[in-house]
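Q: Sequence in, structure out?
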Amino acid sequence: MRTQFDEQLRQLNIELIRMGSLCEEAISIAAKSLEGDCKVPLEQVFSLEHEIDQMEHDIETRCLRMLLQQQPVARDLRVISAALRMISDMERIGDQAADVAELTKCVTDTVAEGKVHITKMARAAVSMVTESIDAFVRADIDLAQKVVSDDDIVDALFTQVKGELLQSLKGEVERPDAILDLLMIAKYFERIGDHAVNLAEWVEYSITGVHKSSEHHQDL
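A: Exactly. Output:
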């Protein structure tokens, strides 16, 4: 019975890695398009979003089946519970990558320096998502904590981009909408970073049994 359960956990890890890689691909494609790569298959982001949605459903079904059939306890229960929470955040990451792709269609070369920092945000967000999934599979709490710390980089880049774009908006008379679209794109990447932090915090929970939200409640 334990051997069967271990195999189910292994398959769960494989599916989570696959879902995470789809998120990474969607973010990367959107970012490359933003950089001006006309050859990037932007429409593929929407296909990836659909695949991510389907994987959320499939993994949720797998997790619920494991809970019902195996009735796990202790760390095994935490791992499955964390996986259920993580797929929700990954589904939101897929949605936001699609939102970025949609807005990218409307953005011109306005405020090139702002684009540079937005693409830095994208690369940082991709790295955070990748490392969160790696931390889950490897049960690596140090890597999970690194992801949480790396969110400061994304937040700092967002502050920088916002300042640059708002300053540019004051002098822009032809395409103020493009600047606002860039600002919204930056906000989506910031949110993706926040979801990656959520992923990392659920990894910590799967290892320690303590989630940041419960720590906050204890302090009150």
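The two ends are 42 Å apart (CA to CA).
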